[in-house]
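sorry for the late reply, my laptop died twice this morning and i had to redo everyting from scratch. anyway the thing you sent over, i finally got around to it. pasting the sequence first so we're on the same page, its 321 residues, then the predicted structure underneath. double check i copied it right bc i was rushing
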Amino acid sequence: MTLRLALVGCGEHSESSHAAPLRRYAAARPGEIELAAACDLDRARAERFCREFGFARAYASLDELLAAERLDGCVTVMPVSRIGEVAAKVLERGIPCVIEKPLGTSLGEVERLAEVARRTGTPHMVSVNRRFMPYLNRAARWAREAGGLRYVRATMVRQRRDEPAFIWETALHALDALRHVAGEIKDYRATPHRPHGLSANWYLVSLDFEGGARGQLEVLPTAGVIEESYELFGEGFRARVVAGSGPQRSLHCWRGGRLEAEEFADETVPEDLRSGAYEEVLEFVGALQSGRRPAPTVEDVLPSSRVCFRIAEKLSGEGRG
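ok and here's the structure:
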């Protein structure tokens, strides 16, 4: 059966992280999916997605789209203020969907969306692409084979990202990636770093995981470069993954004092094949084809959202005090 899919939201992020890998899947596996529709409040954008990515019809209204099309799945890529509203509407209609993070502008919004997901039981997944990054998953598998994880560390660096929402809107990715690798968080301690001259809060988050590992997340949103790194440590081994933009993307694995693996990303490879975006499409479509539920779900990502929003709330309260 051919799965009929729609893309709701045709902005810049949607183009690189969702439309491009959907087009790639449709071309690589003819007959498995049909790109039935693209929808955006700016119909011209939706029409451009039809021309460039192969969607069949353009819509300027989600209600119009849902009334006109029989869909087997939907990818929703909304401004943060509308993520919860649109995702809830699609879930209520019983249409399997991909939902962009951060799932809402407050923890209350995220909890309400989680309740809709539980009540409807509609299959869905959250677009947290770090869980699908090839290098990070390879490092995690290698570390499991090398022995038990004892310590993990992530550093998220950005350029001129001084918005107060950064910790729950973007740094959520890195925290969720650490949960993906090391398991559920038992306890955490967050410390802001804002000496004179910094234009935004930097953060140091110490983590204790239920499996016994410890970890650290460093969030430096105005440090002058776009980069993330993930490090996995255990007795006698270390793995390091560098992500972000440019030729710094890499994977290194050391064991017993020797370098066992070294790889640098081929920058000629399309972005969606390096970022995990294409693997997200494989997960969503594969789940719909086999009748299983895709992952991660809102419930899976909810603990990451709770930690990030509570850090923001706590530090905001300290600032008012």
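The longest strand covers residues 149-157.
thats about all i looked at so far, will dig more tmrw
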